[in-house]
Batch of 4 targets.
Target 1
Amino acid sequence: MSGPTVRRRRLGAELRGLREGMKLTTEQVAKQFGWHNAKVSRIETGRTAARPADVDSLLDFYNVGDPLKRRALTALAREGNRRGWWQTYTDVLTPAYADFISLEADAQSMQTYESGLIPGLFQTAAYARETISAINMTDPAEEVHRLVEVRRARQAVLTRTNPLEVWAVVDESALRTRMGGSPETMSDQLQRLLDVSALPNVTIQVMPLDAGPHPGRSGAFTVLSFPERQDLDVVLLENLTNALYIEEQPEVDRYTAAFRRLVADALPRDASLQLIHDLKDTVQ
């Protein structure tokens, strides 16, 4: 995919923050290393892939001694040009969706609240087809088919060697919304939730219909956390036409706190799974 990858943008943002913390200009940094003036800004915006050796030099210049942070940032430099499986779907993926898949593939854990849909990582092919067709409205059948393939391929993160840890709070209304003309579509989807809940890295809770006011009333959101450092965590907010990434630590912290509140307000895990089981038995 053309343009800077997510890894390069994350690295650039970190390096820019370090430079600004030292009150240095891009010209001063470039002069220190004998670089062209534009090189530093291009690295910081992700338009140029930074070599790990250059990142090491910059971290030395910025007096970064934390070994965890150094390893995290040099790892981003090494992987900045790595191609992911999703790049074979550039004809149907928006840049925002491709960015999200890249982040999801790198993440260690995900906390997600869904108010109207089953989370994508838990969707059956039939359910995914119905939701993609409804939300995208005008996509031709072949494009919908390829987007379903993408959604199913994403689910490999749940069973990889170091699986993504997913904690999902799903509004009960999403479990009761009929998808497609056949009752089997929703019945199979509810069974899929029960199946993935058996994975040790997956926790599913249901927010009941009669829940009082809670932070999820403002809309769905996802928090992705990474193995390197907590201050590289990202929040994703989506709507019909675009996606917004929140990376400022105070704001990320607010969403993390909001998710803890949702976990406390939702049904406990066992009660949630029982409700899903009961709803599956009533689908007709």
Target 2
Amino acid sequence: MTVLVRSSCLSGLDELAAGLGLQLPLLLRRFGLPPEAATDPDLPVSYQAFINLLEHCAQAGRCPDLGLRLAQRQGIGVLGPIAVLLRHAATVGEALALASRYLFVHSPALPLQIDPVPGRAHEMDVLFALDGAALTPRPQVISLSLGIICHSLRALTDGQAQPVQVSLPHLPVAAPGSYRQAYGCAVVFGASAAAVRLASADLALVLSEHDPQIKALALGYLEQLAGSAHTPVSSQVRGLLRGLLGSGSTGHEELARALSMHPRTLQRRLHSEGTTFARLLDEVRRSQFEALIAMPGGPGLTQIAHILGYAEASVLTRSCQRWFGVAPSRLKKPLLPGGSAGGQGEREAQEVQEVQEVQQEQGAGTTASHGG
């Protein structure tokens, strides 16, 4: 099974690669990564392919501290919605606990563990490991990951929390001084685990951006992600469309924002489920139309068109012909509630409306229109 990570892990690599004389688009293809991964931060990509790409760029570009440089460019922002949650946590300790709980959103391969240092009660280790995720960790991705942890601690506390020590499970592949400069603390090489050590007292530091309301919103969103992890995106889109028809907010981009996705990400995920946004919108409109047209004494055709989000009734007419082969007026029952016929004047007005709709539809031909 391929272990995935959000393509935001590539953020900043294009500029670094260009500065090293490397062409990232060509390298993405070489390592089996889609070219849009460089611009779409929400695209799930192979974590191992990213690890291998990073190592290759460091070697081919003769830049052994590439992971350290990339960490400086990415920082906490690479975590996307998780970063919002962490910034508005109450304390450093809560932020680390939330990170440990929700890092699966960035990648299910990112366990984060906070342990006391044996024999040193005043210090804690933030442990990072990829070994248990069917991945082959390499020096560059470990340097990158620990760099992001160090940067995040400083960013969350306005520099109050400072790492005491960084432990790397490999020998230095760059000048040892470059590690110390990037991490801002002592570095131990060849350690038993990758870890960032900080003072236990720092866990109680209050975060300057703490906002309970924003934290609650971020928590709700991430919990929704966890709960809908196995719900098809097409089902989520159908549910949103049913509630938003007629509101003017049923465009592809509006729905992508409602799902906290990039529009291209939504398009790809729907394609992988064998459908498209336009097809789902059409299906929901047809289903809603069938329910509305069958209501005794229900809304008129102009009202139905507005309920379904059509710009004009003539657009509904064309959609109805495509669905059923007839104009909508021929499907609407002329009976009022209880089965009694309406007054003569009402029936005549209905007939005039039907003739006008058929004439509009014949005049419009097959010209495409908004929402059809």
Target 3
Amino acid sequence: MDIAVCRAEDLDVLERCMPSHSVDGHHAARFARQEAGDSSYLVPWLEGRPVGHAEVRWTGCEAPEVRAVHPGCPEINGLFVWPASLRSQGIGASLIRTAERLAQERGIESMGLGVGDDNPRAAALYARLGYRPTVGYVDRWAYLDAEGVRQERADSCLFLVKALR
């Protein structure tokens, strides 16, 4: 498996393999933030196919509850492994380690990420990798359902932080 920063030519492949169903077309939006210098959009490739993604938001988490406690703390956002049959095989951990390495190369001393209250499996992975709970928040997001109708979600989450040095 190789993990690479997303390139413009990857967007069509990402959308075909992992359709975003997002209001903002999340692959394109993440790539645009990367192009603006606000993030790094990481894609793991296995046998020539993308098998997930994670965005390192250098500008930090958007939730005001998190910004108040951790201003300027970069966030690993949108960590995803697909298909589900590839989960628990080290891809997510490799994405996190790659994000941490990029942060260390920038001289950043801590990294954060959020986990939904309903995702104990991910929370266990993050704890094993050294992330510690700090503040609860509500993650608000929207998607397009199967009929193309906008749906809004508000998920209870916990923001975790790890010291990188």
Target 4
Amino acid sequence: MITLSIAKDFSRIPGARFPEEGDYSGQEFRVKYLKPKLQEALSLNTKLRVILDGTAGLGTSFLEESFGGLIRIDGFSYNDIMRTIELISEEDDEYIEEIKEYLLDAHEKSNN
């Protein structure tokens, strides 16, 4: 299993969607951290545990760009993501549901 903690590996204060909107953007997290770890997990046929706890908060634009962008921009399949990524949050499980909605929405839009 591979583990990626947004707070420990990226930032305790994640920002907005794009780098031009400020530091620690969802795009930066996806490109530099999430995408490579997902590719590694898929190649090793193992789980990628993403820990959402420990930040000052996770904005909707950060989460949509980070996770929805895996499908919209990077071309990962919804099924590969869902069987590989394990979302962990003991602080606020609403984040998990929100991310699943963004993934499903990106999947549905990519199939139209």
